[in-house]
Amino acid sequence: MNRTPGETEERTTERTVSDAPPDAERLRRWRMVLGADSADSTGRTLTGQDAAMDGALDALYGGGAGKKPNGRGTGGRSAGLGASAPSVARWLGDIRTYFPSSVVQVMQRDAIDRLGLSALLLEPEMLEAVEPDVHLVGTLLSLDKAMPETTKETARAVVRKVVEDLERRLESRTRATLTGALDRSARISRPRHRDIDWDRTIRANLKNYLTLPAPDAATTAGSTGATGTVVPERLVGYGRSSRSARKDIVLCVDQSGSMAASVVYASVFGAVLASMRTLSTRLVVFDTAVVDLTDQLDDPVDVLFGTQLGGGTDINRALAYCQSRITRPADTVVVLISDLYEGGIRDEMLKRVAAMKASGVQFVSLLALSDEGAPAYDHEHAAALGALGAPAFACTPDLFPDVMAAAIEKRPLPIPDKEYQP
To answer: Cβ neighbours of residue 109 under 8 Å, at least 6 residues apart?
Structure first.
């Protein structure tokens, strides 16, 4: 399979610098772009690092379609990874030597998808060689039940590394964004004296500034003239509820195979939300069964290994469980993360959403929580939720804190136009 110019340029220009004349350099680049199958058309022979990079790419992308895990294709030349752990481990080492981490992750995913190498991830030596990322975690979780005991500790270490990286990237902004939203949502107009926020009260009443007459010159020698004051017609402050949760958050996450990346991000965000004392957070995962993982939220790795990726989908049953756990509807945000391919009772699902919204629950429907772009989803169900005032859209991890802040404050959600397709 030929490689696209843009794809290969990213993989080669960062690592290889050539001092060849312009024409020779152009041929070298085209040779890298087209792959070994087209070497004769360029008349260019690769050497050194170029040859090694080309070999690593050709092992994965070379030859025709229809390749099997053992490296024998249904026609044409097959890829060169074979099915043995040593050859794959060497290839993983090569790509980590020649390509940046972001490209390595893409090539690993392609190797797993194109060559069926998932089974090799059950070997500890293989796991130690791969570059951890969200997609690899999803693959490991799907293999969890088939994983031998000798591999499980290595797999947990890989998953923990990814989770800790995500927490470092997402926690600070999530906390800051939601803390501000919680403070604003808790604001009251008749606070006690000790609960008054004087800065906000002064800003809110600047229009009521009054200029006072200048004092008598005989009694105030050296005075600069008139003075003024702000008349606080409206006091701004906060209720005395810092020791109790101000909002209840319910994350209801579809754990079908297509939602693997969303499950990873939802588990990390669930742990972050659970660590905030002003929030009471519940995490529920479902396929055709429903599992409440709230008691494991202090460790998102335990949460992830408590999921079981794959299987069917019964959104109605999951929402029924979440609805039964709601005690303060006006202070509750329910976040459904699902591609909406419902295997349960569609009309009952929609009735539950309508009932929750009518009771005061803020209902958010996310088609995905990942960086993968617009997912495949059930358009009819998405349109039906939109008609109920719960538009369904894909959400990136960077946008999620803003979505939650809007839901907490009961204001319109920041829906990305390109993602929302009712």
So the answer is: 135, 136
What is the C-alpha separation between 280 and 293, in angstroms, rounded?
Answer: 14
Task: Tell me the torsion sign for CA atoms 34, 37, 41, 45.
Answer: positive
Cβ 46 vs Cβ 54: under 8 Å:
yes
Interior CA angle at 75 toward 74 and 80, to 5°? 80
Q: Is the pLDDT of residue 376 over 70?
A: yes
Phi, psi of 187 (to 5 degrees): -65, 140
> Which range is least confidently modeled, 96-105, 163-172, 269-278, 296-305?
96-105
Per-residue pLDDT of 326-357, as tens digits, reads 999 999 999 999 999 988 788 999 999 999 99
To the question of pTM greater than 0.70 for the whole model, the response is no
Query: Which string of DSSP letters, residue by residue, matches 8-44?
Result: HHHHHTTT----S-HHHHHHHHHHHHH-GGGHHHHT-
Backbone angles phi, psi at 237, to 5 degrees: -160, -170
Contact 129, 90 (CB under 8 A): no
C-beta separation of 393 from 420 below 8 A: yes
User: Under 8 Å CB-to-CB from 348, ≥6 apart: which residues?
Assistant: 316
Q: Are 67 and 73 in contact (CB under 8 A)?
A: yes
Residue recorded with tokens 């003024």: 228
